[in-house]
Amino acid sequence: GAAQLCTTRCVIKELESLGKALYGAKLIAQRFEVRSCSHHKNPVSGSTCLLSMIEDGNPHHFFIATQDQDLSNKVKRKPGIPLLFIIQNTMVLDKPSPKSLAFVQKLQTNQLVPEYQKQSIVELKEKEGLVKQVGEKRRKRKRAGGPNPLSCLKKKKKKTQEGQEPSAEKKKRRKRKRNR
């Protein structure tokens, strides 16, 4: 579906409490859809509220957009949560964290082959003798050799008949005159 920008009441309350210095940020945040959070009666800090929204494995598939390094480090520790930040008036999507990459890799391997089938595959390989042995030889890679041996041959000398010089054998050629 389409992406929607949203914020929480706690974030707006925190921006109001910071005063006139962040008045523009507060106006921008108020334009977004306001999502209900679990602490609407007693608001907490914005970073705490956002972390509580993504606590249970991010079921709503939220992205977190922040300039706060502490919040971004906490978000990177949780798998499957994309992180946005701004560099010179441009929104940038951060690369996936190592936790997210490991989580996806684990999901993919578990989805491809269930655990009981992995055990049966190992047993069948041992039974058929397909298990790799420790002393197995590897094929050697071809390495670049020396120069082409045909390019290194010595030039052959022309054989001449006895008593005749090679210059005598050459015929005189006629030169053509051009007509202009």
UniProtKB/TrEMBL annotation:
Primary location recorded for the protein, binned into one broad class: nucleus
Gene Ontology CC: small-subunit processome
SUPFAM superfamilies: PIN domain-like
Name of encoding gene: Utp23
UniProt record similarity statement: Belongs to the UTP23/FCF1 family. UTP23 subfamily.
Compartments (UniProt record): Nucleus, Nucleolus
Keywords: Nucleus, Ribosome biogenesis, rRNA processing
Location of the region described as Disordered in the Swiss-Prot/TrEMBL record: 130-180
InterPro entries (alphabetical): Fcf1/UTP23, PIN-like_dom_sf, UTP23_sensor
Pfam families to which the protein is assigned, alphabetical: Fcf1, UTP23_sensor
GO BP terms, alphabetized: rRNA processing
Entry function: Involved in rRNA-processing and ribosome biogenesis.
Residues in UTP23 sensor motif region domain copies: 138-157
Keyword hit for Secreted: no
Protein name per the record: UTP23 protein
Biased composition (Basic residues): 170-180
Taxonomic lineage: Eukaryota, Metazoa, Chordata, Craniata, Vertebrata
Organism this protein belongs to: Lanius ludovicianus (Loggerhead shrike)
